[in-house]
């Protein structure tokens, strides 16, 4: 710490962790890895998998799987997820592998420097494109459900573009400016085109067994190298079969 650096010197910093997440049980289970290096991990999360453990989901979450993946390699690991997805939303989830990458990516997310594109299937024929700018707040008496709330809600902005229309369904590309809980699900319901399969906001639809929402593309700067990254994850089978021409 007392050595003065000069032009041309090379400084190597080694970030080591000796302990793992104390309250996350490592579980060996399938993990679809889209990209990994020494700083970040990107996985394609399946449906019916929460990101973090909770009272009713103690040992079958993404956190359990990632901690199990590193436990199998005998690598101490603390779970640090950058973009959280609902249990039944599939697709790209970005995970930091150490404290520095976590801090940089969290700051980038706060500054809206991580671009997130989702693919969704909505009921009916939506306009070709549009922006939904409507605040979202909690539904009184519910710990889960959200609604448009112009008095007490937090500002939420969703941009969408229709990619295809077939058999009463719209395939949409969506970009988020904000990251409110259930933002896409609530916003699409508010314009009369709820997601198919959404038990909470479109409970009578049984086209598929979960909300048709997929985290398709993440665009960001690598937290250490600064390199521009674009990662994609293919549509899961239950969505792709309804629009087989999408690739």
Describe this structure in words.
- With about 250 residues, the chain is α+β, with helices and mostly antiparallel strands.
- It has one domain: Pseudouridine synthase.
- About 15% of the residues lie in helices and about 30% in strands.
- The protein has helices spanning about 60-70, 100-110, 185-190, 235-240, and strands spanning about 35, 40-45, 80, 90-95, 115-125, 130-135, 135-140, 145-150, 155-165, 170-175, 215-220, 230.
- Strand 3 (about 80) and strand 4 (about 90-95) form a beta hairpin.
- The chain is globular and about 65 Å long.
- The model has no long low-confidence stretch (mean pLDDT about 95).
In this structure, how is the largest beta sheet organized?
10 strands, mixed
Unreliable spans? none
Query: Which architecture name does CATH use?
Result: 2-Layer Sandwich
Oligomeric composition of the shown chains:
single chain
Strand content: 25-35%
What is the CATH homology-level superfamily?
Answer: Pseudouridine synthase
Please give the structural blueprint:
Elements: E1 33-36, E2 40-45, H1 62-72, E3 80-81, E4 90-96, H2 99-110, E5 115-123, E6 129-133, E7 136-138, E8 146-148, E9 157-166, E10 169-176, H3 183-190, E11 213-221, E12 228-232, H4 237-240
Parallel strand pairs: 4-11
Antiparallel strand pairs: 1-2, 2-4, 3-4, 5-10, 5-11, 6-9, 7-8, 9-10, 11-12
């Amino acid at each position: 710490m007392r050595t003065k650096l000069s032009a041309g010197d090379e400084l190597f910093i080694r970030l080591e962790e000796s302990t793992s997440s104390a309250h996350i049980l490592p579980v060996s289970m399938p993990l679809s890895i889209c990209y990994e290096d020494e700083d970040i991990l990107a996985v394609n999360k399946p449906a019916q998998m929460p990101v973090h453990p909770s009272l009713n989901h103690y040992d079958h979450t993404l956190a359990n799987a990632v901690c199990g993946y590193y436990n199998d390699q005998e690598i101490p690991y603390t779970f640090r997820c950058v973009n959280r997805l609902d249990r039944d939303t599939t697709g790209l989830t970005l995970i930091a592998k150490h404290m520095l990458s976590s801090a940089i990516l969290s700051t980038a997310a706060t500054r809206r420097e991580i671009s997130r594109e989702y693919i969704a299937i909505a009921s009916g024929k939506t306009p070709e494109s549009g922006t939904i700018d409507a605040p979202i707040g909690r539904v009184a008496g519910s710990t889960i459900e959200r609604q448009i709330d112009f008095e007490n809600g937090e500002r939420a902005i969703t941009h969408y573009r229709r990619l295809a229309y077939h058999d009463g369904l719209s395939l949409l590309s969506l970009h988020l400016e904000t990251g409110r809980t259930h933002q896409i699900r609530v916003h699409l319901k508010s314009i009369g085109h709820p997601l198919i399969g959404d038990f909470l906001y479109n409970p009578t639809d049984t086209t598929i067994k979960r909300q048709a929402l997929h985290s398709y593309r993440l665009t960001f700067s690598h937290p250490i190298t600064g390199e521009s990254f674009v990662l994609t994850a293919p549509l899961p089978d239950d969505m792709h079969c309804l629009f087989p021409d999408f690739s």
